[in-house]
Design goal:
Strand order of the largest sheet: 1-2-3-4-6-5
Number of helices: 11
CATH class of the largest domain: Mainly Alpha
Number of domains: 4
Largest sheet: 6 strands, antiparallel
Strand content: 25-35%
Distance between the termini: 64 Å
Number of strands: 22
CATH superfamily of the largest domain: Transferase(Phosphotransferase) domain 1
Shape: globular
CATH topology of the largest domain: Transferase(Phosphotransferase), domain 1
CATH architecture of the largest domain: Orthogonal Bundle
Structural class: alpha+beta
Length: 446
Amino acid sequence: MFQIGQLLDDRYQLVEPLKIAGVRQTWRSIDLTYQTACIIKLLGFHPTLRWQDYEQFEREIRILKTLKSNFIPRYLTHFSLELEGMHWCVLVQEEISGTSLQSLLEQHHRFTEDEVWQIAIDLLQILIDLQGQYPPVLHRDIHPGHVMLTPDRTVYLIGFGAAQIGSEAIDDFTVTGTYGYVPLEQFGGQAVPASDLYAVGATILHLLTGVCPADLPQHQFKLQFRPFVLIDDQFAVWLEKMLEPDIKQRFQTAKQALTVLLKAQLKTELETEPDDKAIVLNADDGDRSLQIQKSEFDRVTLNQLSDQLQVNIRKRGIHFADALWLGAGALTGGVSVLMLFSHVHPVLSLLCWLDSLPLLGIGLISALGEASVTLSDRSLFIQWKCLGLSYRKVKQSSPAVAIDSATTGITIQTENQQHSIGQFSPELSQAEAEWLVGEIGRWMSG
């Protein structure tokens, strides 16, 4: 019925079918008005269509229109059309250029523990956005197929077809969600914010083990995953609480879960001694101790715990200068390959190839570099990453005593050393640096 190249609403051209399931179809498309890629979902009215299917599609449109998160595909528009005597509902969304975690797992991609830590943090940040709306939004179907990872390692949550607003009554007697990622209460028709946390935990577990949670052994409905993973013990304890079958024993909100995860990460990274203050997995602790503040610049996020402050500076994206560096590196690398096949001495070809690496590195790090700074009253930890890989770390057992802004970036002074952040990668503008200095200064003085 629908074909490649077909035009919908005199504007959207179908490019490639992504999923065809009878009267439910998803297509990659192009918005000819703006020449931008988009995703089109279609639902056709047919005698085999349940009324609940139409309600679910309409609810997805209604929810997407109200969502406020930079890491969920944006709602663009919706409309209806008649085609060959059938009525179709059409939803148009922003396309996310990336790969689902499920596709990566099927390609036998092995996720590192650091990658999984970051994906968990990013998913919880998205859930905080959803749970922070009024009324809160419940996804109800989080699994690796609904989590997208872009080439620059940004995490997006998709697939809101089963989403629910608050405690609204939904007349649907089928179990919503994907087997292996659905908590017990959802089988009984009850979904609460903690239900999405279980699904996130199951998704994280799948990344760590490479095995669907439904295929792992259980004891009294509790997944027995410890023999299948070799991870930091703090991370494992956190994951066990995320996967508690008893909803009362699970974290109740994403903010609580993120609080404990950030504390566990800091404890691991600083390699604190066993007699240091222990991390307490207390479900009542999170909402009081964690404050998440996003700046007007979007790239900078502050996670403020009761006794520490974490600053996350995201990548700035590729600028013209970065493209020049990357182009020069690619050109030099290409020349080295041509030299190798042109019977030039292999050493010269190797030297030319080695020359290309710094050029590519500068382009990638300047465009896609990220940084995190964790301050406490006893220590300072700074980490620089690119494409999810850490390339530099600074650990000091003395706290920051002063902070100042420069033309670009900030400087943090400890008792005997000064550290610069934001002058190269990820680069901070003067306005971003001044805002950040003010916020860190307020935390230090408090």
